[in-house]
Design a protein that fits this description.
The structure holds 2 protein chains of 2 kinds. Chain A is of the alpha+beta class. In chain A, 14% of the residues lie in helices and 34% in strands. Chain A contains 9 helices and 38 strands. In chain A, helix 5 packs across helix 6. Helix content of chain B is 88%, strand content 0%. The radius of gyration of chain B is 18 Å and the shape is rod-shaped. Classes of the chains: A alpha+beta, B mainly alpha. At the A-B interface, helix 6 and helix 9 of A face helix 1 of B.
C-alpha cells in the first residue's frame, strides 16, 4: 500500500460537528491513489443489517455528500469502472457528520479487470459465427437474465451446456435444433474462463452529482419481483411472479409487508402451464402475477400469467376479487396475460402474450372484451390456434415439457418465428388510443376503440418491448434485440431511431423497461446489459447514464413517485445472480429534495 | 339404429389421425434435427 493510499485509509474517519437533526452526513473525496479525483464514482452506504443501501455519485472534483438516516455499524464503499472497490466500516451516530476520503486503485490484473466488467463486455466477446446466431442469442437467450455475468459465464463442459439449453428451451427459449447446436458451441467456446480485457468508459454527466439511489432488499434468492408499481399511498408494490405474493414497501419506514394472493378451487401450481417445467424453486405459485395497473381510486388490476385470471386488489381493505379470462374454442385465449395499463375511462387493457390477443376489462360492468390480433403468417396462425390445445394436452403430464415434442417451432423448424408475443401496451394520453408492441412479431399496433379494428406497423428494429407514450403523444419503443430507442409519431406514422450508448466498442445494450415521465418528458430506460439506467432528454437529444450500485440489474418496469423518484425492482431470473443475491426495490432520485418533475 | 358402427368408424378415424400426426411430427423432428447436425458440426 503506497503512502497516498495509507493517508486516505488512515484519514478515513473524522467525526465532526453535528449536522441537521435526524440525519447523519458523510462527506469526502473520491480519488485515485495518485491523488487524482474520480468523477461519477458510486459512493454507497450500507445499513447495519446490510439489507439497505444508499448511494450518491461523486462530482467533477471527486467530492461527495451523503445524508442518511442509517446509524450503527455501517459500511461505506466507493466504486468506479476500472478501479478496485474501496470499503470501510465504521460506527455512525444518528446525527454525526463524518468525513471519509476514499482511495481507488486502478485495476491492472487481467482477471480482476475482467471480473469487474459488466455482462455486456463478456457477451460481446463471444465468438458469434454469424449475425443470425447473435440475433437469436439476444432474442431467445436473454429474455429473463443477462448473459455474461459471473453466474452465466461459468465455463462448462459441452454436455452441460446442452443440458442448460434444453432447460432453457423448457423455460421458453424458442430455438430450432440448429440454433441449439450453434448456441451450445458458442457458449462452450466463448465462456472459457479466460479474462476479457476491454476498457469500458462511461462519460460523466454533471447530473450524476445531484442524484441519489436507494435500495431495499425484498424477498429471498428465489424471489422474482417482476414488476413494481407505485400505489396511491406512494408505497411500492413489488409483484413476485413466482411465489404469488406482493411485497409492499413503505419507503418512509423501510417496512416491507407481504400480501398473499387468493387461491380458488380451480387454481393449481403452474396454472395453465403446469405441463411445463417452470424455473425450479422460483415458480411455486398458481397465479404467476406479472404486471399491475391502477384505476383512479387506487385499485390494482393485476394480470395472473399462469392461471389466466385478472386479479383486483384493494390496497386499503386488502380485499381481492378474481376474474377468469374466457378461454374460448381450443382453450386458445387467456394464455399468459401480460402487461396491463389503464385508459382515460378507467378501464384496463392488457396483452395476452401467448394467445396473440388483447383484452379490455370494463371495470364498471366487469366484462371482458377480446380482440384477436393479426397472425402474421401460417406458422404463427398455427401457434395462435393450437397453443391452448397443446398446453391443455400436456397438463396430463405435469412438468414433463412435452410442448417441446409437440411444438412446430421444433418439428417444422420454425424457431421463434412461429410467435407474435404481444407484450408492451400503453394508452396515448392525447387521444386515449390503445397501442401495443409485438416482441417477436416486430410490430406495433393500434386498436380502434369503436370498431376494435387493429392496424399494425412493422418496426424498423426487432424486439419492441415495453413501450410508453410521452405527454405529447410520442410513442417511445425500446428495441430489445438491437439495443435501439425508437421514436414513433402516431400522427405522421414515422419512426426515428436513436442509438443507445454502450460502454466499449462492440458491446450491445438490451433495453427492457421504458417509462416516460409525464411532466418532464424524460424517457427512462433500463439498460439491463450494462447495469445502468438511462435517461434520455428528447429536447436535448442527450443521454444521462446512471450506473447502478448493484452488479447485475434486470429492471422490467419503471414507475414514478410523486416525490420525484424513479422506481423499479431488480428482477433477474434467478435473483441469486444479483450481486446482493436477492431482489431489491430500487429508487433513483435525479434531483435532490424531490425536485424532479415538481 | 345402432351407434356401434359409427362409433367404431370414428374410433378408427381418430386412431388413424393420431398415427398420421405422430408420423408427421416425428419426421419433422428428425429432419429438423438432421438440418442442425449437418449445418453445425
Amino acid at each position: 500500500m503506497n503512502a497516498t493510499r495509507m493517508l486516505f485509509t488512515a484519514a478515513a474517519v473524522f467525526a465532526l460537528v453535528a449536522p441537521a437533526a435526524g440525519a447523519a452526513t458523510l462527506t469526502g473525496l473520491v480519488a485515485t491513489d495518485a491523488g487524482q479525483p474520480v468523477a461519477g464514482a458510486l459512493v454507497t452506504l450500507w445499513n447495519e443489517p446490510r439489507n439497505r443501501k444508499e448511494t450518491v455519485y461523486s462530482d467533477a472534483e471527486g467530492k461527495y455528500t451523503l445524508q442518511t438516516a442509517f446509524a450503527g455499524k455501517v459500511r461505506l464503499r466507493a466504486r468506479a469502472s476500472m478501479y478496485r472497490d474501496f470499503n470501510v466500516e465504521f460506527d455512525l451516530g444518528a446525527e454525526d457528520a463524518q468525513q471519509h476520503n476514499l482511495a481507488l486503485v486502478r485495476l491492472s490484473d487481467p482477471q480482476e479487470i475482467s471480473d469487474s466488467l459488466t455482462a455486456s463486455a463478456h457477451a460481446a466477446a463471444l465468438p458469434f459465427p454469424d449475425k443470425a446466431t447473435k440475433d437469436i442469442f439476444i432474442s431467445q437467450c436473454s429474455y429473463c437474465h443477462q448473459q455474461g455475468n459471473s453466474l452465466t459465464r461459468r465455463p462448462r463442459p459441452d454436455a452441460e451446456w446442452n443440458d442448460v439449453l434444453w432447460r432453457m428451451e423448457g423455460y421458453g427459449a424458442y430455438i430450432t435444433y440448429a440454433e441449439h447446436r450453434r448456441i451450445q458451441k458458442l457458449l462452450g467456446d466463448g465462456f472459457n474462463g479466460k479474462p476479457v480485457n476491454v476498457v469500458q468508459t462511461a462519460p460523466y454527466s454533471p447530473e450524476l452529482a445531484r442524484a441519489r439511489v436507494e435500495e431495499w432488499h425484498a424477498g429471498d434468492p428465489m424471489s422474482f419481483l417482476h414488476d413494481t408499481i407505485v400505489g396511491h399511498d406512494q408505497k411500492l408494490y413489488g409483484i413476485d411472479e413466482g411465489k404469488d405474493v406482493i411485497y409492499i414497501l413503505d419507503r418512509t419506514t423501510g417496512v416491507i409487508e407481504v400480501e398473499h394472493l387468493p387461491v380458488e378451487a380451480d387454481d393449481q401450481v403452474g396454472g395453465r402451464f403446469r405441463g411445463v417445467r417452470l424455473p425450479i424453486g422460483v415458480f411455486t405459485g398458481m397465479h404467476g402475477p406479472h404486471s399491475a395497473a391502477l384505476t383512479k381510486d387506487g385499485t390494482f388490476y393485476i394480470t395472473a400469467a399462469l392461471s389466466g385470471k385478472l386479479l383486483r386488489f384493494n390496497p386499503q381493505t386488502r380485499e381481492w376479487k378474481t376474474f377468469k379470462i374466457p378461454q374460448g374454442f381450443l382453450w386458445r385465449k387467456g394464455l399468459y396475460p401480460h402487461t396491463i395499463r389503464t385508459d382515460q375511462d378507467d378501464n384496463v387493457w392488457f396483452t395476452v402474450t401467448m394467445s396473440n390477443r388483447l383484452m379490455k376489462f370494463d371495470t364498471k360492468t366487469e366484462q371482458f372484451t377480446d380482440i384477436g390480433l393479426p397472425h402474421g403468417g401460417f406458422l404463427r396462425w398455427i401457434t395462435d390456434t393450437f397453443m391452448g390445445a397443446v398446453l391443455k394436452l400436456i397438463q396430463w403430464f405435469p412438468e414433463k415439457n412435452l410442448q417441446l415434442a409437440l411444438s412446430h417451432h421444433k418439428w417444422l423448424n420454425g424457431g421463434h418465428k412461429v410467435l407474435n408475443w404481444p407484450y408492451g401496451i400503453d394508452v396515448n394520453p392525447v387521444d386515449n388510443s390503445v397501442w401495443y408492441a409485438k416482441l417477436l412479431g416486430n410490430r406495433i399496433g393500434v386498436v380502434d376503440r369503436e370498431t376494435l379494428q387493429v392496424t399494425e406497423f412493422e418496426t424498423p428494429h426487432s424486439g419492441p418491448r415495453r413501450m410508453r407514450f410521452g405527454p405529447d403523444g410520442i410513442l417511445w419503443i425500446p428495441s430489445f434485440d438491437e439495443g435501439k430507442l425508437m421514436r414513433f409519431d402516431p400522427k405522421t406514422r414515422q419512426f426515428e431511431t436513436i442509438d443507445l450508448p454502450v460502454l466499449s466498442k462492440g458491446e450491445y445494450e438490451m433495453p427492457y423497461a421504458l417509462a416516460v415521465h409525464q411532466k418532464t418528458g424524460d424517457v427512462w430506460i433500463a439498460a439491463n446489459n450494462t447495469d445502468r439506467v438511462l435517461r434520455y432528454l428528447p429536447a436535448e437529444k442527450r443521454f444521462i447514464a446512471y450506473p447502478m450500485p448493484n452488479r447485475v440489474i434486470w429492471f422490467r418496469d419503471i414507475d414514478f413517485t410523486s416525490d420525484g423518484k424513479v422506481c423499479m425492482s431488480n428482477a433477474n431470473l434467478p435473483a441469486y445472480a444479483h450481486e446482493d443475491l436477492v431482489p431489491a426495490f430500487v429508487c433513483l432520485e435525479p434531483e435532490p429534495n424531490g425536485a424532479y418533475g415538481r | 339404429m345402432s351407434l356401434g358402427k359409427p362409433l367404431k368408424f370414428l374410433g378408427r378415424q381418430l386412431l388413424l389421425g393420431t398415427a398420421i400426426t405422430i408420423v408427421i411430427v416425428a419426421t419433422g423432428h428428425l429432419v429438423s434435427w438432421l438440418i442442425g447436425w449437418v449445418t453445425v458440426r
